[in-house]
Automatic annotation (TrEMBL):
Keywords: Coiled coil, Hydrolase. This is SpoIIE family protein phosphatase. Residues 149-178 form a coiled coil. Residues 188-407 form the PPM-type phosphatase domain. Pfam families: SpoIIE.
Amino acid sequence: MEELEIRKQFEIKEMELNALLEITQAINSNLPEESLYKIYNFTLRSNLNITKLALFVFDEDWQCKAHFGTKHPYYKIKLLPEFKTIQDITHLREFKHCEFTEFDIIVPVAHKTTTLALVFVGGLDQYDVRYESEDGIRFIQALSNIIIVAIENKKLARKQLEQEALRKELEIARDVQQFLFPKKLPNTDVLKVEASYLPHDRIGGDYYDYIPMNKNQFLICVADVSGKGIPAALMMSNFQASLRTLVRQTPNLTDIVEALNYQVLENTKGEKFITFFAAIYDIRLKTMVYVNAGHNPPILWDRQHGIRLLEDGSTVLGAMDPLPFLNEGFLTDIDDFLIFCYTDGLTETTNEAGREFGVETLLKYFQNDHIYTRGLKKIHEDIIVALDEFKGNKGYHDDITILSCRVG
């Protein structure tokens, strides 16, 4: 009798070792999660003769990943809230009037204070007593723990790969974006241009430029493409190349804007759009022509007329072709002025109360009597400091680009 019991115990241990071996080999073979669940299912049914089981795993939400021998389709059944925090082996007799009472016990798989999975085991009273013993139940728990930990490691590795891919994407997009910005901006007694770029944690689609056209004319512009990441950076790179090519071909700003609109629509099929402001200034004639295509109106300060917003233009680029309207703004006899351009990340920054920084705050700043005596760099610093104080502990939700130009 004693020899029979020893042999029986030996057979049990052998089956348990075989089960562990199968699971370990499956994990080492780097099989996908779905395959691991199937092997887990098969191993418990064949090697340990378990007849009723349901495995629930927390994967953003609780889901049944394996079940057999049950009356109910547990893939469709939601886990009861009181089950989700169980960390000790629990008898189902404590729970009444629910689908899960066809099981005998719940075997948890936990990490510290977090429950990762729950194994519902039933039919224990019909088979070998070893399943009611502490060793048998602990083995089910150990086997489940091995498979769940392996799958959690797979999830972690996948997240790490995704994060690495995102890091590389942002790095590429950041490099692309840096190529868009001019390496050198003029800083002479007659003409000064200053730019500030505050990137958000993800690459956006902001763009600014200064393009000399001839000895008398130059173009300044600022743009913002909808979306973020590599698609936005590549789209803006294409936009910059198109703009620079068009500027070499024609000084007509209306023709340039119409051509840009057509190319944006062709490239994006209407799924993205670009807000765009561009101005061409002629130093000899003292004239400025500009187009505002759905962009935040730049602020123009000049000694004769004070402050005004540059709003004439059209709608956003890339939404429709032809543009429904296109009006050039034209200013004459300006030779002593400052123009302040920006993207919506500046004025739409919110504080802890949910209020936006707004264009009124900018206008109030530029109404200062001493604005013209301040350097462009100082103006940018003042506004960035004011913005940072305004938002408080609230984070920035978009890129912020500022481009300023002073003539005279």
